[in-house]
Write a structure and sequence with these properties.
Length: about 220
């Protein structure tokens, strides 16, 4: 994803533009209530697509930072050949929408599936909602799998990077408005978070790999 230095995300410009034009139109014809609603919509879209600059983390080389803003709602130990921990982070309209690389790594795979945008408590949400799965691997063969799932929202998930691309920790790689993010981490990982923690993308530490895997 190209470095975006604008105060709002490119993906939000059309929504902001439509809201601004509506506000001007209704103001010209003195449609008081519609003018007020369109002004609120304009402020809402500017807020949702805001693009604050984030400081690059000063973590150790084997660290993993949060890829999203949100609250940790669950941490599970799982029985899987590749992964030992499953972490769910829930975002909302109040959070910054940008997705950021959790570590210095190569993006091994992207699997994006179109779908619905049902509320997370709907039984069908995890089966049919729009989602994208990404696999990051660092130069020690440590892997982090991330699944972003859209919740009820007017916009979908945007991914602005390609498979095989090398990404620096904290770099922007996509955008998701109001979604649920799941991280899968291997056995050699030490968690630095607990349920209820509020995370900030690139600035909050998820944890460290306790040892490096040998290269093939």
């Amino acid at each position: 994803m190209k470095n975006n230095l604008f105060p709002v995300a490119q993906e939000g410009r059309k929504y902001i533009g439509y809201a601004a034009l509506s506000f001007i139109f209704f103001a010209l014809f003195n449609f008081g209530i519609l003018e007020f609603i369109s002004f609120l919509a304009l402020l809402f879209f500017i807020f949702v697509y805001r693009n604050p600059e984030r400081l690059a983390p000063n973590f150790l080389e084997n660290s993993v930072a949060s890829p999203v803003d949100g609250v940790v709602i669950s941490i599970e130990e799982i029985d899987d050949k590749e992964y030992a921990y499953k972490i769910e982070i829930e975002g909302s309209y109040l959070n910054v929408s940008f997705l950021r690389a959790p570590l210095n790594a190569s993006l091994k795979s992207i699997d994006k599936k179109s779908g619905a945008r049902l509320p997370k408590f709907d039984d069908l949400a995890k089966k049919i909602n729009e989602n994208v799965a990404l696999l990051f691997e660092d130069n020690h063969k440590n892997k982090v799998k991330i699944i972003h799932m859209a919740k009820q929202s007017f916009d979908g998930i945007t991914i602005g990077v390609a498979e095989g691309q090398n990404i620096l920790q904290s770099s922007r790689y996509g955008l998701m408005v109001n979604g649920l993010t799941t991280l899968y981490l291997p056995q050699n990982f030490r968690l630095n978070i607990s349920i209820g923690n509020e995370l900030i993308a690139s600035e909050s530490l998820i944890g460290y790999f306790s040892k490096s895997k040998k290269k093939n």
